[in-house]
Design brief:
Length: about 500
């Protein structure tokens, strides 16, 4: 059965069992609301005692309520499961007729031993205390309105088994986590402590799917088993020591990717961590996550490494390992892009714009290195412009202008190489981001930047970003739809009325 059916409260299940105790062992007439009492000897003409050779699959009949009936296929499968259960059950007769009645219209009767029920279940021990002296069938018990008849039967079978763990392993092959959770619910309801412990040990030992994990957590929370469920939940709960070292763990994971030697594995782990950290951003904010300080520490470390690489690249002496140096520059630039992408996704990228705008020494070194070695660096500037243009980054106009003053020239110089050589660069996205960033500036700064672009575009063509839409908007703002910042008070009228008190 589904997980929803398995989430009925223990109290409700116990209530159903309490209502099911009846004093008439013949089952000829009863009401689920009748309570347990000492049995009275039935009239000889109506008593039918089960013989020792009577089949354990004693009774399986339909309810007369058409709204609760199962489909023929479901009913047949459930009947087959219950029949197999009872054929394998080690009952060997008994002095209690236990009947389980399901909502779906099935009724199953079993002859079981009072001593087993009372010994294994604290609930039955209390209810059966002092009843049923003598030989033969002493009384009858009915559990009515059950969600899963086969689970109740399985619980009774389990009470009669010597090796519960072995039984659960065989049962798990057919029903897995969901079936054991249902059995745990019933065992808890009838205070079958050994059954509860065995179910918890089974759940602790086997793997779960993600859907099963949610079902386990929900069921254990509903049953409120507290300390008994601790071992089971250790795989999904963090201890205080884990929580306190979480940021160290994130730092080591991110650093490992930044320093990875195998490019293919590095790409795969970058993608994986980006996905997991993005999932964290949309989950409960109280959950553990990588800290802002950790991300910015890594950014500064990557910028320092990039500076050293560019310094080596400006060396005029020919080096046999120039290709290795080029790869290191591209790698450090890619590392910065990755960390910045995480920062922007977590709405923490604002401070990096200021940091990058202040890298004037790095920009000066950049201009001295051949384009083939450096063009990956300009992707960082493009990434920030896209973030600003989309409204994902919020920084003052002074920082926005400083960013472009420091790095726009480099972006113009590298754009052709960046567009042709960088996989995953969206030319239009970069152009739109740059356009929007420029248009967020004061009009006179727009004019400086766009007039400079105009001359460059005429000489470079496609090797320069095409931001003519931004140029058009600036033009209309500057020469057609001029807006005066001085307030116009000519139409302002204030009328004061005096009302008599």
């Amino acid at each position: 059965m589904g997980g929803q059916n398995s989430l009925k409260s223990t109290q409700q299940v116990s209530t159903m069992i309490k209502q099911g105790f009846i004093s008439d062992p013949t089952f000829s007439s009863f009401s689920p609301s009748r309570t347990f009492s000492s049995p009275s000897p039935p009239p000889p003409t109506t008593t039918t005692r089960p013989s020792q050779t009577q089949s354990l699959f004693d009774m399986m009949s339909e309810d007369h309520n058409p709204n609760t009936k199962l489909s023929d296929d479901k009913r047949r499968k459930m009947q087959d499961r219950i029949k197999k259960l009872l054929e394998e059950a080690p009952f060997n007769g008994g002095d209690v007729k236990l009947t389980v009645v399901g909502k779906e219209g099935l009724k199953v009767s079993m002859d079981v031993k009072k001593s087993v029920l009372a010994d294994k279940s604290r609930f039955f021990a209390e209810k059966l205390r002092g009843n049923g002296n003598g030989n033969g069938m002493s009384h009858s018990v009915e559990i009515s309105d059950c969600d899963d008849v086969d689970v109740y039967v399985e619980a009774v079978v389990l009470m009669h088994c010597v090796d519960l763990k072995k039984r659960l392993r065989f049962m798990g092959d057919g029903g897995g986590v969901s079936k054991v959770l249902n059995l745990l619910k019933v065992s808890s309801a009838i205070m079958f402590d050994l059954g509860v412990i065995s179910c918890l040990e089974y759940l602790e030992a086997i793997p779960w799917t993600e859907d099963e994990q949610e079902e386990v957590i929900s069921q254990l929370d509903n049953l409120q088993l507290h300390d008994s469920a601790t071992e089971v939940l250790l795989r999904v709960s963090s201890s205080p020591s884990t929580a306190s070292s979480a940021d160290d763990i994130f730092t080591n994971l991110l650093s490992g990717v930044l320093q990875a030697k195998d490019d293919k594995s590095r790409r795969e782990m970058k993608s994986l961590l980006s996905k997991l950290l993005k999932d964290n951003a949309f989950s409960d904010s109280s959950k553990l996550d990588v800290s802002k300080d950790t991300l910015y520490h890594l950014c500064h470390r990557c910028i320092s490494s990039l500076f050293l690489c560019l310094s080596e690249a400006t060396d005029t002496h020919e080096r046999p390992d120039r290709s290795v140096l080029m790869s290191e520059i591209a790698r450090e630039a890619d590392n910065i892009q990755w960390i910045v992408d995480i920062l922007i996704g977590k709405k923490m990228g604002d401070e990096f714009v200021k940091i990058w705008a202040e890298q004037k020494e790095l920009a000066a070194l950049h201009s001295k290195v051949q384009i083939i070695y450096r063009y990956e660096i300009s992707r960082i500037t493009a990434q920030l412009c896209i973030g600003i243009g989309k409204g994902h980054i919020f920084v003052p106009k002074e920082i926005r202008f400083s960013l472009l003053s420091t790095w726009l020239e480099a972006l113009y110089e590298d754009f052709g190489w960046m567009r042709r050589a960088c996989r995953g660069v969206d030319k239009k996205l970069v152009e739109d981001g740059l356009s929007q960033t420029i248009l967020t500036l004061p009009l006179f700064q727009q004019q400086i930047l766009l007039l400079n672009w105009f001359d460059r575009f005429l000489n470079k063509g496609d090797d320069c970003p095409n931001i003519q839409k931004a140029f058009e908007i600036w033009w209309r703002r500057a020469f057609i739809r001029k807006y005066s910042s001085e307030p116009d008070n000519s139409q302002l009228q204030i009328t004061v009325f005096d009302y008599p008190k």
